[in-house]
Structures are given as structure tokens and as C-alpha cells.
């Protein structure tokens, strides 16, 4: 399973109006660390399908959202809850570290 993509056109519905927490993975195809963290996020999504939704946003294809959310380095992950950024995670991390960062959303 691969995380579903969101875009500028679908971001409001996919993320801001979503029920429950949504992690948005800001990434780019040329980013090695982004490719490393993607399967880890897929695992977390597969193990917690009813607790968190994980979406990918390509910063090269959606520069307006990258700018709006001040993405200056990738991978960058932002967890949105009730339409607001609840937490930000910068950089590729191993699964246990990401799960610690996301603990409050995976309860």
C-alpha cells in the first residue's frame, strides 16, 4: 500500500476538512531521504488505519502549499487536526522515532 497523494486542488477536502488527524508528507521525487521515509509511513498507515490518515504532497508539483506551510527542507511532515497544524516533523527518521513523534495521534 502506498500513501494516497493530495494536491492543491484536493488539499482542503483531503486535509483541512478531514475527520481525525492527517499527516501530510511533503516530499519530492529527487529527494533520497523522502524515498527512505515513504515505506515507513506506509507501514504506520497500514498498522493504524482508523487512527491517522497519511497523505503525500509533492512540493515540486504544489509549490503554493509548500510556500504556505513554510516547507524549507524535505522530507517534512505536518500533522493536521481540525484544519490546523498540530505538529511538524522534519527529516527522515526510523519507524520507532516517527511513532514516538506521532504517539498522541496513534492512541
UniProtKB/TrEMBL annotation:
This is Thioredoxin. It comes from the Bacteria. CDD domains: TRX_family. Gene3D superfamilies: Glutaredoxin. The record marks 25 as: Deprotonates C-terminal active site Cys. GO terms for biological process: cell redox homeostasis. Signal peptide: none annotated. The record marks 32-33 as: Contributes to redox potential value. The active site is at residues 31, 34. SUPFAM superfamilies: Thioredoxin-like. It comes from Microbacterium album.
Amino acid at each position: 500500500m502506498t500513501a494516497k497523494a493530495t494536491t492543491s486542488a484536493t488539499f482542503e477536502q483531503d486535509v483541512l476538512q478531514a475527520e481525525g488527524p492527517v499527516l501530510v508528507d511533503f516530499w519530492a521525487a529527487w529527494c533520497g531521504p523522502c524515498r527512505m521515509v515513504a515505506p515507513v509511513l506506509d507501514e504506520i498507515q497500514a498498522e493504524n488505519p482508523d487512527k491517522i490518515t497519511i497523505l503525500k504532497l509533492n512540493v515540486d508539483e504544489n509549490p503554493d502549499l509548500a510556500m504556505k506551510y513554510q516547507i524549507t527542507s524535505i522530507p517534512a511532515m505536518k500533522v493536521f487536526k481540525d484544519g490546523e497544524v498540530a505538529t511538524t516533523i522534519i527529516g527522515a527518521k526510523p519507524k520507532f522515532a516517527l511513532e514516538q513523534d506521532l504517539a498522541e495521534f496513534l492512541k
